[in-house]
Structure to design on (396 residues):
């Protein structure tokens, strides 16, 4: 098998701010046998002009336009128009490393895998990157029923997916993907990646898990994932119904239906946060070990996510919430309504007197990055910025 063509499909909707970087990252791939399919889904900004500009400069680019039909429809149309034997997807506000497809296609040529799956780098607006990998050992799998299916959608040991439910960090065989899209309900708009991936996996015979990341997922607070949309409630039921239908066609549906319940609970947790400002991550059982540090201390809480909210509740139960002199977060937007407390930017640290800053996040890696950033920006003694591993037993 020599240099199979890969068709890279990019659905686009009002992405002019990020689109040049996205398209250039695909054009600059070290693997050259690429077709780039840009699906402009009714953008009202300058996205189409950017697409046409790149098309003039690169004959590998094809531009198609729809009238805001949604992500699944855009991807489905891209697959229908593709000439490549393989398919890859890139979202229009993300970007990829230059050697991504060279690495994935090299593995494909060695194994003929139906899927090659890599990791994803989650890049937030503060410049912090976190790698997310599939929860399997790296390698080539052919017995999917034994090694992949039992934890594909939800692994109870880690309270999340076994196989990352994103399409963008993988390559697929076009023939299998075409069959998958025949029965996909295009009305699903949140969780559509998972629906498509699970449908595809039930037809796949092999998968290669790669523990390296080349895809940069741009986490934006104003992205569509974080916008209030009353259709989310109907979407959850539609997503559940469609995935249940897919799994019921498998010889042992209960293997997946048990996982589906946990997955839908996570979808509903997202809906609770977006629609009602209820952070489910703050629920469950939390254990903190700050008794010595917080006594007679003026406290700044850093972080207003689930851990921060749970810490605030802990301080309330200890009748120490009056010791809090500020609660800060790098993304305070909408957090005050969620926390019932005024959440401010970290700049507040320079304006007030305090004794300790408690970094309220679960991840040690992220906590240490936050701590070093604070020490660089503000005249704070290292021992006054503290973090301890919290214990959290999730509500779901």
């Amino acid at each position: 098998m020599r240099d199979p063509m890969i068709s890279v499909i990019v659905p686009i909707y009002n992405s002019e701010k990020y689109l040049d970087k996205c398209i250039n990252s695909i054009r600059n791939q070290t693997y050259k046998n690429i077709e780039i399919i840009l699906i402009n889904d009714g953008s009202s900004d300058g996205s189409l002009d950017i697409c046409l500009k790149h098309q003039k400069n690169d004959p590998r680019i094809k531009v198609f336009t729809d009238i805001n039909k949604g992500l699944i429809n855009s991807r489905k149309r891209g697959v229908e128009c593709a000439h490549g034997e393989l398919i890859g997807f890139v979202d229009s506000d993300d970007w990829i490393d230059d050697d991504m497809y060279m690495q994935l296609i090299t593995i494909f040529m060695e194994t003929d895998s139906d899927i090659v799956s890599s990791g994803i780098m989650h890049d937030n607006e503060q410049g912090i990157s976190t790698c997310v990998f599939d929860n399997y050992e790296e390698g080539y799998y052919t017995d999917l029923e034994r090694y992949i299916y039992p934890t594909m959608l939800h692994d109870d040991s880690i309270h999340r997916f076994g196989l990352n439910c994103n399409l963008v960090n993988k390559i697929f065989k076009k023939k299998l993907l075409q069959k998958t899209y025949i029965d996909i309900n295009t009305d699903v708009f949140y969780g559509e990646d998972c629906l498509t991936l699970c449908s595809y996996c039930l037809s796949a015979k092999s998968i290669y898990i790669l523990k390296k990341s080349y895809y940069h997922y741009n986490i934006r607070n104003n992205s569509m994932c974080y916008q209030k949309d009353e259709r989310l409630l109907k979407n959850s039921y539609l997503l559940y119904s469609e995935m249940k239908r897919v799994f019921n066609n498998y010889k042992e549906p209960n293997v997946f239906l048990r996982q589906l319940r946990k997955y839908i609970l996570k979808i509903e947790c997202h809906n609770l946060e977006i629609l009602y400002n209820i952070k489910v991550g703050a629920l469950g059982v939390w254990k903190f070990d700050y008794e010595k540090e917080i006594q007679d201390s003026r406290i700044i809480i850093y972080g207003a996510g689930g851990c921060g909210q749970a810490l605030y509740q802990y301080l309330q139960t200890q009748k120490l919430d009056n010791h809090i002199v500020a609660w800060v977060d790098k993304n305070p937007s909408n957090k005050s309504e969620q926390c019932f407390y005024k959440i401010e930017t970290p700049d507040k640290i320079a304006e007030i007197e305090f004794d300790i800053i408690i970094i309220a996040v679960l991840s040690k890696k992220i906590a240490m990055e936050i701590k070093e950033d604070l020490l660089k920006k503000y005249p704070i003694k290292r021992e006054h910025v503290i973090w301890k591993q919290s214990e959290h037993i999730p509500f779901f």
User: Anything to note?
Assistant: The mean pLDDT is 93.
